[in-house]
Amino acid sequence: MNFAIIGAGGWGTALARLLARKGSPVRLWARRPQFARELDELRENRQYLPGVSLPKDHLTITADLQHAVEDADVVLIAVPSFAVREIAQRLRSCARPQAWINLAKGLEKNSLLTMSAVLRQELQTENIFTLSGPSHAEEVGRDFPTSVVLAGTDLALGERLQRALMTERFRVYLSDDLLGVEYGGTVKNVIALAAGILDGLGYGDNAKGALIARGLAEMVRLGVKLGARRETFFGLSGVGDLVATCTSEHSRNRRVGYRLGRGEPLQKILESMTMVAEGVYATAAVRELARRHGVEVPITEAVYAVLYEGASPLDQLNALMTREPKREFY
Description:
Layout: E1 3-6, H1 10-22, E2 26-29, H2 33-42, E3 44-45, E4 49-53, E5 59-62, H3 65-69, E6 74-77, H4 84-91, E7 99-102, H5 115-123, E8 128-132, H6 137-140, E9 146-151, H7 155-165, E10 170-175, H8 178-201, H9 205-225, H10 236-247, H11 252-261, H12 266-271, H13 278-292, H14 298-308, H15 313-321
Helix pairs in contact: 4-5, 8-9, 8-10, 8-11, 8-13, 8-14, 9-10, 13-14, 14-15
């Protein structure tokens, strides 16, 4: 299969390297021409994936979007969630692949749609998949063992994609619960912000373990209410990604939360970052979805209060700990 990867951030670059090293023809699109030239000359993404060399064979790097996708059998969209609709609008007139694969983990700000729903609207096709799971680019780019899940409705096509993506260090499972995989990938970023806040406040493993467990409960409650399958959230795109994102030094969302817990203002944190922390945008969307559907999400509400209402992280933690006693349900 010929692959086009739209977006030369860390994740797009890591997958371009993985597929090219496997021997698949890959075109990696970078938005800025100067950045594309730098990647092509240096064969290293020093901004987003430093220290990882990119192969010369099978990997073409370009800033020409039409050139990137022509003759592509599969187009992977590796841009932040807020840019997915715009890039899909640009792609619909110049690409006719067998399949589209979304790599973003989030919801659209105003519509609250999943990324696959946005792509379906713009591209007018059902051949849309989402790849998700515990998969930090820093580790995939260095061939650390990684397992992910590919979700879509056409499982026959999915099986072909699954084999095309897999390597001996990158294992791909297949699912037809597209909603569950996408909601898991979205909610885990919100909980990771909370995990970072705990770290910033100086608390330890007891608090982190409880947060992950109760964050999973919020993920399950909301996802099932929205039509996803409960068991999906106990897999790679749910608890697997949740644990990785809440505990890893690579997690941008956890780092943002840590700095919030240490007392830094959100705006200052965001201005200092070169990469996107999807959880900042996802928090407002998840909270709004939960309120519309009558789902209780106290951790999400607490993170929202810290991000958007200037609430004290310590006060929000105390409020969570002193809620009315409850039975544990999933």
